[in-house]
Give the backbone structure.
Amino acid sequence: MLHVISAEYFEDYKLKVSFNDGSTHIVDFKKTIMSDHRQIINDLKDISLFKDFCIQNYTISWSNGLDFAPEFIKDCSVKVLNEIA
């Protein structure tokens, strides 16, 4: 089962997200936020609210109560990062 283990703000509507499978991705939520008309997602158009997230129950949760499945988050990735240990 895929889990988010860390996330940090990157830029615009993008986060740098690490998963329990060892991969790290730049995830772009802009298309989802701009095209979805549900209020809970529209709230994230406010970039300060977008930046207000934490890791909860193995995924990213925003302060307005929104969260996405880790699989969806990974599907939104625009770039896979190779971490050098």
